[in-house]
């Protein structure tokens, strides 16, 4: 497994390599979405619309609070991928050690702070009164699960950076199986297990992630995964100053993007909440459907980012551009197909997340028909931004996202309601997503992202394979660089 668990993404045909590499990521996204949907069916179908509204508010808040930590994980993934592309395994392990320490400490801090302030934040969001107690009960348990949930996500991300998408998928499958099986047990109780209601859904998530994360660490150690750090390498968990600086300087802007998305979604959720539980539950059901529609974009985009980063490390710029083109094409075809299916079959799908005979169903269908097209633009933007960030260019994607969300989406959703009614919220999705796509493509074409660096140039020296293996250096003849390895002038 040590030789086959990681994949060299700097070789082979671009399209085929990207597809094979992305399939486990896509399958993992499917599993996560199915897991969330099954949980939503239990909560919405058996505990009512107020419970579904509570989980929708709580999950949006959760996404916002972990955004900055997630940025550190993205930065670590890029650094690991660049190191693997340069055949520098020792540096990849140094990155993992430093980022794991930072990531773990930050997630614990978020867990403690969120547990204490969950009620106040939910009140600030304007959570409907009838859903407030349920949302707080759910969110408090979820906050206890955050360290395990996001350490699991972090380890999975850096393994993808090294070209290993299979191992994270297997243990994500374990999470989903356990979470799905434990949800009804903890919600309704059975035997010695008490009835926990909506808090039981969150408890199932905590237990499932605890078991799977522990099992994954044991598996990596047993199978001697290339990225596993044994007892003799524990010093690598002491933060390396230059890597820590890169993680913070590059990770914070990427994390800020997640926070920016979350805050915009929370603003929209507040607008929707002001129209009552019925519309809130319709929006929550649509969010479940949209999770599936965006799956190809998320999977292909994540694969493109890791693949581009490895080729940046190997300085194969022609393959970087080819990766971007292949990713955009795949996203347009796959996401476009899912959008068509989601419009044709939306009644059947949306009804799964709402109580039988709910008046919210037609509202959910209406808003879905307006907003779902935005995910076609989102897929293109996600790929382009991932490729751009693979070099360390993180500020421009942040600015583009800020302009699209806070310059277009939120103002339009708020200010156009007097003229368009609640439809202004739904139309803000495709219009702002289209603006983000056009700005991203313009920056990719004319921006200076190829000159960006994750680490300072003076310190970013690439080790040779002989150095990595601890062998004495061998003389080589100087060769002129091939065109594929020269960064084009901007």
From TrEMBL:
The chain crosses the membrane at residues 61-83, 95-117, 137-157, 169-190, 196-220, 252-272, 292-314, 326-345, 370-388, 395-412, 424-444. It is a multi-pass membrane protein. It is found in: Cell inner membrane. InterPro entries: MATE_fam (IPR002528), MdtK-like (IPR048279), Membrane_Transporter-Flippase (IPR052031). Its main location: membrane. Residues 469-490 are annotated as: Disordered. Residues 472-483 have a biased composition (Pro residues). Pfam families: MatE (PF01554). Keywords: Cell membrane, Membrane, Transmembrane, Transmembrane helix, Transport. NCBIfam families: matE. This is MATE family efflux transporter. It comes from Acidovorax bellezanensis.
